[in-house]
Amino acid sequence: MKYYEDMVVGTVTHSPRPYKVTREEVIDFASKYDPQPFHLDDEAAAKTFFGKLSASGWHTAAMTMRLMVESWKDQEESASLGSPGVDELRWIKPVYPGDELRVETTLMSKRRMKSRPEMGLTKTQQKVFNQNDELVMTMIGNGLIKVRNPDVMEDD
Questions:
Q1: How far is CA 93 from CA 50, 55, 56, 105, 135, in A?
Q2: What pTM did the predictor assign?
Q3: Is 105 helix (H, G, I), strand (E, B) or coil?
Q4: What's the CA gap between 46 and 60, in Å, rounded?
Q5: Quick one: CA dihedral 121, 19, 52, 133, positive or negative?
Q6: Are 122 and 147 in contact (CB under 8 A)?
Q7: Which domains does the chain have, with CATH numbers?
Q8: How far is 52 from 41, CA to CA, in rounded Å?
Q9: Cβ–Cβ < 8 Å for 108, 124
Q10: Helical (H) or strand (E) element with 121
Q11: Tens of pLDDT, residues 48-83
């Protein structure tokens, strides 16, 4: 288990394998959560700056989450307690069916929570790339992580 104390600021991790985006899941996700024509229909998408069917940005964020969780499982299971949210979410380039996504995560900072000594708060930067190493999305994630020894307050 990887606890707060085990985390080193500046550490960079990579998703263990790419995630292949399929046409079916792009349409399925969009039909449920973001039913805009350029996410659902080839002809409608062709008339937009996308030029062809594209994944919803929210779908890209969900696929990114999947890759991040797989990364934790493949490396060393984290003592994650969830997240209070993300900052600076940016969709840089469209994601299309057939793209293969990967995530690079950098631990930017960490601090103990004074009000909850059993938890630490981390800030990570996620960069999402396609198969051509083109940046398609960025975000800053805030994470809550279990502290191994809550009674010991160390300098971060």
A1: 9, 11, 11, 18, 7
A2: 0.91
A3: strand
A4: 20
A5: positive
A6: no
A7: 4-146 (3.10.129.10)
A8: 8
A9: yes
A10: strand 119-129
A11: 999 999 999 999 999 999 999 888 765 556 788 999
